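Issue 218. Parser rejects a valid record. Input:
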Amino acid sequence: MRVALLTKEYPPDVYGGAGVHVEFLARELAKLATVEVRRFGAPSTDLEGNPAVRGFEPWAALGGPELYRSALRTISMDLAMSTGLDGADLVHSHTWYANFAGHLAKLLYGVPHVMTTHSLEPLRPWKAEQLGPGGYALSSFCERTAIESADGVIAVSGEMRADVLAAYPAVEPARVHVIHNGIDPDRYRPVRETDVLDRYGISPAMPTVVFVGRVTRQKGIEFLLEAAHQLDPGVQLVLSAGAADTPELAAEVERRVLALGETRERVVWIEHMLDRDEIVQILSHATVFCCPSIYEPLGIVNLEAMACAVPVVATDTGGIPEVVQDGVTGLLVPFETNDPLTRAPARPSQFVDDIAARLSELLSDPGRAKAMGESGRARVVAEFSWAAVARQVFDLYRTLVPDEPAL
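Output the parser choked on:
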């Protein structure tokens, strides 16, 4: 079977969970099928191997406001990515950035289109800050067009499946399949080295709360920064937080970080995206990992922390409870919203207080925190391997291309 994976992110350009997902899925799928990855980026010159990787760049001659050029550049790359797929038996797209390319390939070549929903545009209205209202309308159009006609829709959690069916009632429930994200426990594992900590001024001796994620409304970093004011002043906060959606949001986070730094000994904010080995080392020396997201279909970053034997304090929303077992591998923060679109907490101050309380609960009991971390790693190893994920994805492919043998 010849499979084309269509994605915005792929190494070396990975900044979020979707990019991590495609990287490892491609590697494992290549053991079962012939895989070509088509990604945004400079054209590739080496297309040997399995998976092969091909890059596509946007059209250069695009006028108009910058916000709208961003969305139009994406669509121009979708047009380019959908060319030359005559030999593919199936296309599989990831995120709205590539979904339209998958839809076009389905129409052009008459092949099945599978799309993985890592998030949903109707549930991310803050994207209008990043793309502008018109750009957000385009991203929503691309997603809706693709998801309503895709032959198979993969939801990364049961909660995500419910969101898909609620946001897009035209999608037949039988076409939506739950296949969780995975993790490589050999790459994400506890390590003892401290050279990365030394490089960024992180003390391995202090109780430490770590956050890893993009600077976007979805990830809820502003609520963590408020909650941190309630933590013991001797607690170190490490933020690996880059790729801000907008300059305004980056400035807002900077103001909050500076204000927090006035009340405690150490706040470390790393604004650029770290590589995997750096993240692993920082997680390995954390006391607690915090995921304060207000919208999270699954939260692959929680799997990464658990694989490094770190207990997780995370919002009880989306697919997070399918990963983090409350009281076993971490603590869940109660969450209610009165607005299913913005996902803003119904009682922001209570949400902040609850984050602080659960972080403090584990920071004050290192033995319990350590036991939860060990339970988290055991859960990851047993239930979330990429090999198992790839097999489930390939089995779905086989229902759509039944006569094609595996490698």
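Fixed in the parser; the record now loads. The longest strand covers residues 34-40.
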